[in-house]
Amino acid sequence: MLLIKGGRVVDPANNLDGVADVLVKRGKIEAVGPNLKSGEATVCDATGKIVAPGLIDMHAHLRQPGREDEETIRTGTRAALRGGFTTVCAMPNTEPCADTASVIQLVTALAAAEGAVSVLPIGAITKGREGKEIVEMGELVAAGAVAFSDDGTSVGAAEVMRRALEYSRMFDVPIIAHCEDGSLALGGTMHEGCSSTRMGLRGMPAAAEDVMVARDICLAELTGARLHVAHLSSAGSVELVRQAKRRGVRVTCEVTPHHLILSDCDLLFYDTNLKVNPPLRSARDRDALRDGLLDGTIDAIATDHAPHARHEKEVEFVDAPFGMIGLETALPLLVEHLVTTDVLSPTQLIEKLTTGPAAALGISAGTLSVGAVADITVIDPAVSVTIDVNAFESCSRNTPFDGVRVSAAVTDVIVDGAWLLKDGEIEG
Amino acid sequence: MTELSSKDLLGIEDLSKGEIELILSTAESFAEVATRTIKKVPTLRGRTVVNLFLEPSTRTRTSFELACKRLSADVINISGPSSSAVKGESLKDTAKTIEAMHPDVVVVRHSAAGSARMLADLMAASIVNAGDGSHEHPTQALLDAFTIKKHLGCVAGLHVGIVGDIAHSRVARSNIAALTKLGAEVTVIGPPTLMPACIEDLGVRVSYDFDRAIGDLDVIYLLRIQLERQGRALFPSLREYSSLFGLNVRRLSLAKESAIVMHPGPMNRGVEISGEVADMDRAVITDQVANGIATRMAVLYLLVGGGETESAADQGR
Amino acid sequence: MRQASEVMDGPAVSRALRRIAHEILERNCGGRDVALVGLRTRGVYLAQRLTSEIAKIEKIELPVGELDTGFYRDDIGLAANPQVEKTEIPFDVNQKHIIVVDDVLYTGRTIRAAMDAVTDFGRPATIQLAVLVDRGHRELPIRPDYVGKNVPTSRKERVTVHLSELDGDEGVWIGEDETS
Predict the structure, then answer these.
(1) Could you give the angle at which helices B115-122 and B91-99 cross, rounded to 10 degrees?
(2) Do the Cβ atoms of B115 and A316 come within 8 Å?
(3) Measured distance CA(C162)–CA(C155) in Å, rounded
(4) Minimal Cβ distance to A203: which of B197, B201, B202
(5) For residue B50, what are the β-bridge partners?
(6) Which of A59, A146, B36, B175 has its CA 20 to 30 A from that of A382?
(7) What residues contact A396, with CB distance under 8 A and at least 6 apart?
């Protein structure tokens, strides 16, 4: 038994925001309320801290199998644990990619053996992620796939995307769309705008994302399937999702911390750690994303944790791969940039990291309801920390935030009732 | 102002107006050396300059090489492909290898935007950007400003039209930065498919109608045009480009009598410039080449200098 | 800074230049094949003054060149590079008697640079040196042929020359270096 005492319990699923104790028993939430007593329970003092449901990252690249030099299930989930995430969805663009039940089973088995937190595998939409033939969704779902995505590229042919959406209705799982019109974005390395013009880099126009978001919404409307749009980055696509939701289309979407915090103006020194896809867009787009979070258009914040080997990023900007890691920096950065600046309340932020992604995925995690699995994250919102890549659990270091001071930290994490992160240190 | 604030010359965007003027007035002094029988001064004797040209270029490399030789510097030319896949070595390793040879200056040409900055961060030597992708080509803009000054007396108050593929041109970017800092008005002219996003934010006007724009120009700056850029056709044909944006005698007759014609080379005669116009006296294209050497000598001289105060040198007579 | 003391006034500068003009003519057979090269900045004005003095005496117009020794300095990279001005030698130096003119002779390094520069333009018959002030402390084996005034100084002191063309007033002062 574990008693988390005296914290500010923020549980959006139960409309709860107030000082309370949380009692954990046999891996489940036993009780939430003021002044809980339990003689033999271990006590976690959370005074002055926020006690939230374990965070869910519905978009991470764990790279195993295939690129174990960049990340493994073990290191990726330890990074997640450090960052306060108790559930992580593993994207299927591994080598080989997760287009068969056996790869899904491998990920599940590795997660069970070595994972520090829960891993939910996502299957590819099409075989080999080639955009041609849809995968055996039934087998993949049976093996544990919670969603399907060809993340990294769009399914180019509208007809294939239509069939995938239609077919997925049998299993009621979301199709997660990476929305990018390949021909419009071809050869682009950053957002097309004033900065790309100054830097002499080929841009990817926001319209490359918008046209694909529009197409996929139309197809979701046509098929009645569940569409989840990954990493929204443009004002246009926020508006498209907003209108679709108003029409009752079954669409959800996510945004990354970096698209909420940074803009294309930050790239002027060609830091390859800022090269991400979708690219960091204009300040106007960033503000639209924040508005989308506030009015409920955007359901979830997801890291798009994308580890890359050092030598692959230490090259000319055009040659560097897209992506930055985010599991260990997401929460502190979000608190620093959105909560302390009053863009979001703590409840709103926690919602986008718990109930939001849980609903988009259709899973039961992300709540402190009595009887729920005891996944809990304790956050210190008033501590000064300097981000240090050398202290990361992740195998990779590709973040632009090294050396940045933040004023929040994840101190304790309980996964399935086990107190795995204690005062910032991983147990065992 | 007697010195540059940075050890490197990466782009005009990083320079102040005063720094640009310093380079231009220093170039004036170096231009005299070319008029001598012995076109060589011992200024950079014992200094090593590496010309790292990872993209084919004859004129810029030759110009830098001659500038080095006229300053008595030892110059080494390294050339090869930009792509590390072809070269078998990353730019970082190339930088470390060259750094181990202790050069004073590395002049770099590379197909990737930002590569000069990457080298500057990796190396103690002064880096001179001789063209990085579609980003900047600062010495070209400096020699162009020098040429304009020579022919028209000053840059401030002039109206310069830059015609052609603005989107993919480092020459256009560097010239826009230099000319606007020196107080000229700049209009970029070409089809919308060759204009980069938000180009107006760089302080220029945009025109799609060369015939209408040409009458206001003091300087007509033509860029080299290519039909295809990375496999994409950005306008229908060279023939149509030439009829809309090529400078021929008929179109030039719409310009001011005093207007000069410039081109960074190499020219496509019959495409962006007609043969007749290219051979006119008001086409100052070969002057640009000659002035390039003096300007590059000035840049090398100013970058290799530095150290204590000026009065210490002043007292050493 | 301690008050600078005047070592030459305006008339004294003029008298010295007149005397040097005579000496140049005397030593060079009435000025045949003589050309002057002034070192920027004040040496150029002094060279022009000398030619007009010579013109008054012998009714000949000697050519004058202007030289910036910046390209030939021996301390490039050690000290901040001074701004280099334009060099103009509008005559053939071959077989000429070249009189290098400067305001103050000190270490001799500038004159060394000037000699290198002149020889880059050709092979003069002789190179001679005229200075308004010789303040001593040579670091190279260089001695002037024509001197307006020998002024013993310490290394700490600073010699200031003003010429009417450039500075309005005229004279030579000696004072403690502001930087020391």
Answers:
(1) 40
(2) yes
(3) 20
(4) B197
(5) B76, B106
(6) A59
(7) A70, A71, A307, A308, A309, A310, A325
CB A285 within 8 A of CB A239: no
Whether C1 is covered by a domain: the verdict is no
Task: Check: CB of residue A419 under 8 Å from CB of residue A95.
Answer: no
Contact between A391 and A402 under an 8 Å Cβ cutoff? The reply is no
Contact (Cβ atoms closer than 8 angstroms) between residue B43 and residue C84: no
Do B201 and A205 count as a contact with CB atoms less than 8 A apart?
A: no
Question: Please, which residues bridge with residue A24 across strands?
Answer: A2, A29
Domain that holds residue C33: 9-71+87-156
Q: Which chains touch C (3 or more CB pairs under 8 A)?
A: B
Q: Which CATH number fits domain A2-50+373-384+407-426: 3.40.50.1980, 2.40.70.10, 1.10.645.10, 2.30.40.10?
A: 2.30.40.10
Cβ separation A269–B197 shorter than 8 A? no
> What token pair was written down for A300?
């979830």
Task: Please write the tens of the pLDDT for every residue from C19-33.
Answer: 999 999 999 988 889
- State whether B315 and C106 contact (CB < 8 Å): yes
Put simply, whether A196 touches B (Cβ < 8 Å) is: yes
Please give the full DSSP string across A178-230, using - where no structure is assigned.
Answer: ----HHHHTT--EESSHHHHHHT--EE-HHHHHHHHHHHHHHHHHH---EEE-
Residue B48 is among the residues annotated as catalytic for this protein: no
Contacts of B48 in chain C (CB under 8 A): none
CB A389 within 8 A of CB A326: no
Alpha-carbon distance of A41 to A308, in angstroms, equals 42
Write the pLDDT tens digit of every residue in A328-338: 999 999 999 99
CATH of A54-361, one of 3.20.20.70, 3.40.50.1100, 3.20.20.140, 3.30.1330.10: 3.20.20.140
Predicted complex ipTM = 0.92
Would you place residue C180 in the very low, low, confident or very high pLDDT band (cuts 50, 70, 90)?
very low
Among this protein's residues, is B224 annotated catalytic? no
